[in-house]
Amino acid sequence: MSRKEIEEIKQKRLRHTLKYVYESSEFYRRKFNGIDFDKITPETISKLPFTTKQELRDAYPLKICCVPKGRIVRIQMSGGTTGQPVIVPYTRRDVEQWKEMMLRAFEIAGITQKDVIQITPAFGLWNGGFGFHFAADAINAFVIPIGAGNTRNQIRFMIDFGTTVLCATASYPMRIAEVAEELGIKPAELPVEKMLLGAEPWSDEMRNRIEETFEARTYDIPGLTEMGGVGTVGFECPLRRGLHMWEDNYIVEVVDPKTGEVLDEGEEGEIVYTAINREAMPLIRYRSGEISEIVSKERCECGIEHMTLRRIKGRTDDMIIHSGAKFYPSDVERILAGYGITQYKIEVGSKVRVLFEGDSRLISKIAKDFREFIGINPEIVALQKGALERFEGKAKRVVRTW
Ligand SMILES: [Zn+2]
């Protein structure tokens, strides 16, 4: 797709979507009240108001939905276990769009019908499992829809069925490695060649650990339930320049999380998405809470024309502010993974405490890195292997103790 084609399709789809949501959703009719929305272009989209997660919660169950209930084919859910859930409805066309975007990812990663694809995220209201499934099924690959948990069984299936592609949360591979070693199996001897990892921010240092441990190639797959689920918004550049965001399907802005002001390339802020190719609930200027920055809007050296975003660093609600320093759990992970540490916990209260499994002789080096790279001086505690809780889905690394 050329830049000209992308711009044309963006323009056309944005126009259509704005008119469509205005006509079919009371929520957007009220939101756009008094705004000349039919004059809005991708360049002037910042004139429209944001849509927030709180509004989605208040809209439970289907108050923002743009189609009659009879046209909904499924729902997925976002958010934790507490509070009002955020429900995302899909039409048949939305499921197709999900699949199409995921197929782009498969193509970039060179995943084909010959692959054996083991899908370890859960099959349920959380969108992970299904997103991978729709695309893997569409290419007639050998799909193992095993879902979350039971790591020993996951390893057994990898060996017995010759899994070549592993779909997982970013923290799961190192858990698999640990269990494999307990079973006397070298992770590098597992048949897995490629891993599509997402659902939580992961550092380049963690990537190096995973790739060395498994002798496999990893790909970062972003995705937000509110935008249709895993793999819908973009995929990692094969040259690892960042994430290519599918501009023919989403308009991506980065804004100052405090003021909401649109930021320039290279400025870190919160990602705001506008879905321009969805049907049941296309969200306009949705505040995602994800932190990143635009690397480039030019064509990438890999040949992909779509804009490049830096890999997601964290979420606004994960940010830790302590003694004047601001940081994300991924900053801590980056330092620890550099020493080969993959199991850790961050306790945040009146002070910050970092617990890790590993050699206590590393403490002084780690402390120095924390001071130098993050600007904090936490209490650091070394623990025995196996002392911290293990996770088979998204890892919970941060505990707030106030
Ligand atoms: Zn690229």
Largest sheet: 5 strands, parallel
Domain unit count? 3
Question: What is the CATH top level name of the largest domain?
Answer: Alpha Beta
Would you report the number of β strands?
Answer: 23
**Whole-number average pLDDT?**
95
Structural class: alpha/beta
- What is the helix tally? 10
Full CATH superfamily name of the largest domain = ANL, N-terminal domain
Radius of gyration: 21 Å
Low-confidence stretches: none
The distinct ligands, each listed once, are: zinc ion
**For the terminal residues, how far apart are their CA atoms?**
51 Å
Instruction: Trace the largest sheet across and list its strands.
Output: 4-3-5-6-7
Describe it.
- The termini are far apart.
- Helix 6 crosses helix 7 and helix 8 crosses helix 9.
- The chain is built from ten helices and 23 strands.
- The strands form seven sheets. A five-stranded parallel sheet has the order 4-3-5-6-7, with helices on both faces. A four-stranded antiparallel sheet has the order 10-11-16-15, with helices on one face.
- With 402 residues, it is α/β, with parallel strands linked by helices.
- 29% of the residues lie in helices and 23% in strands.
- It folds into three domains: 168 residues, ANL, N-terminal domain (Rossmann fold); 126 residues, Rossmann fold (3-Layer(aba) Sandwich); 82 residues, GMP Synthetase, Chain A, domain 3, CATH 3.30.300.30.
- The chain binds zinc ion (ZN).
- The site of zinc ion (ZN) has 7 residues, from loops.
- Zinc ion (ZN) binds next to loops.
